[in-house]
Amino acid sequence: MPRGTQARREAIVRLATTSGLASVEELSATFDVTPSTIRRDLAQLESAGELARTYGGAMAIVAHPEASLRQRLGEAFEAKSAIAKWAAAQVGAGETVLLDAGSTVGALAHELRGARDLTVATTGMTVLEELAGAERVHVECLGGTLRRLSAGFVGPLAEAALSRMTFDRVFLGADGVTADDGICEASLQQTRLKELMTRRSDAVYLLVHAAKLGRRPFHAWARMPERWTLVTDAAAEPSALAPFRANGVQVVVVGTDGSAI
Fold first, then answer.
1. Which of 90, 164, 194, 230 lies at 20 to 30 Å from 259 by C-alpha?
2. What does pTM read for this prediction?
3. Which numeric CATH code is attached to 69-254?
4. Is the dihedral of CA 49, 50, 52, 56 positive or negative?
Protein backbone atom coordinates (compact mmCIF):
# COMPACT_ATOMS: atom_id res chain seq x y z
CA MET A 1 0.00 0.00 0.00
CA PRO A 2 1.19 3.57 -0.67
CA ARG A 3 3.11 5.24 2.16
CA GLY A 4 2.53 8.85 3.04
CA THR A 5 -0.56 11.02 3.04
CA GLN A 6 -0.29 12.33 -0.51
CA ALA A 7 0.42 8.91 -2.02
CA ARG A 8 -2.53 7.41 -0.13
CA ARG A 9 -4.90 10.14 -1.30
CA GLU A 10 -3.81 9.69 -4.91
CA ALA A 11 -4.41 5.95 -4.54
CA ILE A 12 -7.90 6.62 -3.13
CA VAL A 13 -8.76 8.70 -6.21
CA ARG A 14 -7.47 5.95 -8.52
CA LEU A 15 -9.47 3.34 -6.65
CA ALA A 16 -12.62 5.45 -6.85
CA THR A 17 -12.14 5.92 -10.56
CA THR A 18 -11.93 2.19 -11.26
CA SER A 19 -14.23 0.74 -8.59
CA GLY A 20 -16.75 3.46 -7.83
CA LEU A 21 -18.24 3.69 -4.36
CA ALA A 22 -16.31 2.58 -1.28
CA SER A 23 -17.05 2.92 2.42
CA VAL A 24 -14.80 4.50 5.02
CA GLU A 25 -14.38 1.08 6.63
CA GLU A 26 -13.32 -0.53 3.36
CA LEU A 27 -10.77 2.19 2.67
CA SER A 28 -9.49 2.01 6.23
CA ALA A 29 -8.82 -1.72 5.83
CA THR A 30 -7.35 -1.32 2.36
CA PHE A 31 -4.81 1.31 3.41
CA ASP A 32 -4.29 0.07 6.99
CA VAL A 33 -5.11 3.40 8.61
CA THR A 34 -7.82 4.51 11.02
CA PRO A 35 -11.30 5.53 9.85
CA SER A 36 -10.65 9.06 11.13
CA THR A 37 -7.60 9.29 8.88
CA ILE A 38 -9.72 8.22 5.89
CA ARG A 39 -12.37 10.80 6.78
CA ARG A 40 -9.70 13.52 6.78
CA ASP A 41 -8.46 12.26 3.41
CA LEU A 42 -11.96 12.35 1.95
CA ALA A 43 -12.65 15.81 3.33
CA GLN A 44 -9.46 17.13 1.74
CA LEU A 45 -10.14 15.41 -1.59
CA GLU A 46 -13.70 16.74 -1.60
CA SER A 47 -12.42 20.25 -0.86
CA ALA A 48 -10.01 19.90 -3.79
CA GLY A 49 -12.86 18.86 -6.07
CA GLU A 50 -11.45 15.38 -6.71
CA LEU A 51 -14.11 13.34 -4.89
CA ALA A 52 -17.72 13.71 -3.78
CA ARG A 53 -18.78 12.24 -0.46
CA THR A 54 -22.10 10.45 -0.06
CA TYR A 55 -24.37 9.32 2.74
CA GLY A 56 -22.99 6.78 5.21
CA GLY A 57 -19.34 7.62 4.80
CA ALA A 58 -19.10 6.28 1.26
CA MET A 59 -17.49 8.33 -1.44
CA ALA A 60 -17.71 8.58 -5.17
CA ILE A 61 -15.48 10.04 -7.77
CA VAL A 62 -16.84 13.28 -9.19
CA ALA A 63 -18.80 12.26 -12.26
CA HIS A 64 -16.70 12.07 -15.39
CA PRO A 65 -18.17 13.76 -18.45
CA GLU A 66 -20.14 11.24 -20.47
CA ALA A 67 -18.37 10.43 -23.72
CA SER A 68 -20.39 11.11 -26.85
CA LEU A 69 -21.20 8.35 -29.29
CA ARG A 70 -18.83 9.97 -31.79
CA GLN A 71 -15.99 9.73 -29.25
CA ARG A 72 -16.78 6.08 -28.51
CA LEU A 73 -16.84 5.02 -32.13
CA GLY A 74 -13.05 4.91 -32.26
CA GLU A 75 -12.61 2.97 -29.01
CA ALA A 76 -11.76 -0.76 -29.18
CA PHE A 77 -12.82 -0.86 -32.83
CA GLU A 78 -11.50 -4.36 -33.56
CA ALA A 79 -13.03 -5.82 -30.41
CA LYS A 80 -16.42 -4.28 -31.16
CA SER A 81 -16.31 -5.56 -34.74
CA ALA A 82 -15.52 -9.10 -33.57
CA ILE A 83 -18.30 -9.03 -30.97
CA ALA A 84 -20.73 -7.74 -33.61
CA LYS A 85 -19.86 -10.57 -36.02
CA TRP A 86 -20.57 -13.19 -33.37
CA ALA A 87 -23.82 -11.51 -32.39
CA ALA A 88 -25.02 -11.28 -35.99
CA ALA A 89 -24.50 -15.03 -36.39
CA GLN A 90 -27.01 -15.65 -33.60
CA VAL A 91 -29.84 -13.93 -35.49
CA GLY A 92 -32.02 -16.24 -37.56
CA ALA A 93 -34.24 -15.57 -40.57
CA GLY A 94 -37.72 -14.43 -39.70
CA GLU A 95 -36.79 -13.14 -36.24
CA THR A 96 -37.77 -9.88 -34.64
CA VAL A 97 -34.84 -8.39 -32.74
CA LEU A 98 -34.38 -5.31 -30.57
CA LEU A 99 -31.19 -3.27 -30.84
CA ASP A 100 -30.06 -0.79 -28.22
CA ALA A 101 -28.27 2.50 -28.90
CA GLY A 102 -24.46 2.55 -28.77
CA SER A 103 -21.37 1.93 -30.83
CA THR A 104 -21.06 -1.85 -30.38
CA VAL A 105 -24.73 -2.45 -31.18
CA GLY A 106 -24.29 -0.08 -34.12
CA ALA A 107 -21.52 -2.38 -35.35
CA LEU A 108 -23.98 -5.28 -35.07
CA ALA A 109 -26.47 -3.36 -37.23
CA HIS A 110 -23.72 -2.99 -39.83
CA GLU A 111 -23.33 -6.78 -39.89
CA LEU A 112 -27.09 -7.25 -40.34
CA ARG A 113 -27.42 -5.09 -43.44
CA GLY A 114 -27.43 -8.12 -45.73
CA ALA A 115 -30.04 -10.03 -43.72
CA ARG A 116 -33.35 -11.13 -45.24
CA ASP A 117 -36.77 -11.51 -43.66
CA LEU A 118 -35.66 -9.73 -40.49
CA THR A 119 -37.46 -7.16 -38.34
CA VAL A 120 -35.30 -4.81 -36.29
CA ALA A 121 -36.68 -2.41 -33.69
CA THR A 122 -34.28 0.09 -32.20
CA THR A 123 -33.76 3.10 -29.96
CA GLY A 124 -30.44 3.96 -31.62
CA MET A 125 -29.74 6.45 -34.38
CA THR A 126 -26.61 4.55 -35.41
CA VAL A 127 -28.72 1.46 -36.03
CA LEU A 128 -31.15 3.51 -38.12
CA GLU A 129 -28.30 4.93 -40.19
CA GLU A 130 -26.81 1.48 -40.79
CA LEU A 131 -30.10 -0.14 -41.81
CA ALA A 132 -31.70 2.73 -43.72
CA GLY A 133 -30.55 1.24 -47.03
CA ALA A 134 -31.12 -2.42 -46.12
CA GLU A 135 -34.18 -3.09 -48.27
CA ARG A 136 -34.80 -6.59 -46.93
CA VAL A 137 -34.71 -5.58 -43.27
CA HIS A 138 -37.91 -4.14 -41.83
CA VAL A 139 -37.02 -1.39 -39.36
CA GLU A 140 -39.12 -0.01 -36.50
CA CYS A 141 -37.96 3.09 -34.62
CA LEU A 142 -39.24 3.23 -31.04
CA GLY A 143 -38.94 7.02 -30.91
CA GLY A 144 -39.00 9.09 -27.75
CA THR A 145 -36.74 11.83 -26.43
CA LEU A 146 -33.35 12.04 -28.13
CA ARG A 147 -30.26 11.90 -25.90
CA ARG A 148 -27.74 13.54 -28.17
CA LEU A 149 -24.65 12.27 -26.35
CA SER A 150 -25.65 8.64 -26.79
CA ALA A 151 -27.59 9.18 -30.04
CA GLY A 152 -30.45 7.15 -28.61
CA PHE A 153 -34.11 7.63 -27.73
CA VAL A 154 -35.41 7.35 -24.16
CA GLY A 155 -38.43 8.40 -22.12
CA PRO A 156 -42.14 7.57 -21.89
CA LEU A 157 -42.79 7.53 -25.63
CA ALA A 158 -40.00 4.98 -26.20
CA GLU A 159 -41.32 2.93 -23.27
CA ALA A 160 -44.88 3.03 -24.61
CA ALA A 161 -43.75 1.87 -28.06
CA LEU A 162 -41.72 -0.91 -26.47
CA SER A 163 -44.79 -2.19 -24.62
CA ARG A 164 -46.52 -2.90 -27.95
CA MET A 165 -43.94 -5.43 -29.16
CA THR A 166 -42.10 -8.58 -28.10
CA PHE A 167 -38.77 -9.81 -29.44
CA ASP A 168 -36.83 -12.99 -30.07
CA ARG A 169 -33.59 -11.33 -28.96
CA VAL A 170 -32.35 -8.04 -27.55
CA PHE A 171 -28.77 -6.82 -27.92
CA LEU A 172 -27.75 -4.22 -25.35
CA GLY A 173 -24.74 -1.99 -24.84
CA ALA A 174 -23.43 -0.43 -21.61
CA ASP A 175 -21.01 2.11 -20.19
CA GLY A 176 -20.07 -0.47 -17.57
CA VAL A 177 -21.30 -3.76 -16.13
CA THR A 178 -20.84 -5.70 -12.90
CA ALA A 179 -22.01 -9.17 -11.95
CA ASP A 180 -23.99 -7.95 -8.94
CA ASP A 181 -25.49 -4.62 -10.03
CA GLY A 182 -25.93 -5.11 -13.79
CA ILE A 183 -25.65 -2.38 -16.42
CA CYS A 184 -24.23 1.03 -15.51
CA GLU A 185 -25.29 4.12 -17.47
CA ALA A 186 -25.25 7.90 -17.13
CA SER A 187 -28.99 8.34 -16.60
CA LEU A 188 -31.93 6.57 -14.98
CA GLN A 189 -33.94 7.02 -18.18
CA GLN A 190 -31.41 4.82 -19.97
CA THR A 191 -31.36 2.12 -17.31
CA ARG A 192 -35.15 2.00 -16.97
CA LEU A 193 -35.50 1.53 -20.72
CA LYS A 194 -32.88 -1.22 -20.79
CA GLU A 195 -34.70 -3.11 -18.03
CA LEU A 196 -37.92 -2.89 -20.03
CA MET A 197 -36.08 -4.15 -23.11
CA THR A 198 -34.97 -7.28 -21.27
CA ARG A 199 -38.54 -7.97 -20.11
CA ARG A 200 -39.91 -7.87 -23.67
CA SER A 201 -37.29 -10.25 -25.12
CA ASP A 202 -36.86 -14.03 -25.04
CA ALA A 203 -33.05 -13.91 -25.13
CA VAL A 204 -30.88 -11.13 -23.69
CA TYR A 205 -27.33 -10.33 -24.83
CA LEU A 206 -25.02 -7.66 -23.47
CA LEU A 207 -22.27 -6.66 -25.90
CA VAL A 208 -19.30 -5.01 -24.15
CA HIS A 209 -15.57 -4.95 -24.81
CA ALA A 210 -13.26 -6.03 -22.00
CA ALA A 211 -12.50 -2.57 -20.60
CA LYS A 212 -16.14 -2.19 -19.47
CA LEU A 213 -16.19 -5.27 -17.26
CA GLY A 214 -16.47 -4.32 -13.59
CA ARG A 215 -16.56 -0.63 -14.50
CA ARG A 216 -18.77 1.82 -12.53
CA PRO A 217 -18.48 5.23 -14.19
CA PHE A 218 -21.94 6.47 -13.15
CA HIS A 219 -24.65 5.79 -10.59
CA ALA A 220 -27.67 4.63 -12.62
CA TRP A 221 -28.15 0.87 -12.89
CA ALA A 222 -30.28 -1.62 -14.79
CA ARG A 223 -30.84 -5.00 -13.20
CA MET A 224 -30.38 -7.95 -15.53
CA PRO A 225 -32.83 -10.87 -15.76
CA GLU A 226 -32.09 -14.28 -14.28
CA ARG A 227 -30.77 -15.57 -17.59
CA TRP A 228 -28.65 -13.51 -19.95
CA THR A 229 -25.49 -13.72 -22.05
CA LEU A 230 -22.40 -11.56 -21.67
CA VAL A 231 -20.45 -11.23 -24.93
CA THR A 232 -16.95 -9.74 -24.74
CA ASP A 233 -13.57 -9.92 -26.44
CA ALA A 234 -10.40 -11.93 -25.84
CA ALA A 235 -8.75 -9.15 -23.81
CA ALA A 236 -11.06 -9.97 -20.90
CA GLU A 237 -9.14 -11.32 -17.91
CA PRO A 238 -10.40 -14.57 -16.33
CA SER A 239 -10.64 -12.72 -12.99
CA ALA A 240 -12.99 -10.16 -14.57
CA LEU A 241 -15.22 -12.90 -15.99
CA ALA A 242 -15.30 -15.11 -12.89
CA PRO A 243 -17.95 -13.11 -10.96
CA PHE A 244 -20.36 -13.31 -13.91
CA ARG A 245 -19.88 -17.05 -14.30
CA ALA A 246 -20.33 -17.50 -10.54
CA ASN A 247 -23.71 -15.74 -10.85
CA GLY A 248 -24.85 -18.13 -13.58
CA VAL A 249 -24.38 -15.72 -16.49
CA GLN A 250 -23.54 -17.33 -19.82
CA VAL A 251 -20.22 -15.83 -20.88
CA VAL A 252 -19.05 -15.78 -24.51
CA VAL A 253 -15.51 -14.65 -25.30
CA VAL A 254 -15.01 -13.78 -28.95
CA GLY A 255 -11.76 -13.96 -30.93
CA THR A 256 -10.65 -11.48 -33.57
CA ASP A 257 -12.38 -13.51 -36.30
CA GLY A 258 -15.77 -13.23 -34.58
CA SER A 259 -15.91 -16.82 -33.37
CA ALA A 260 -16.29 -17.91 -29.74
CA ILE A 261 -13.09 -19.11 -28.08
1. 194
2. 0.76
3. 3.40.50.1360
4. negative
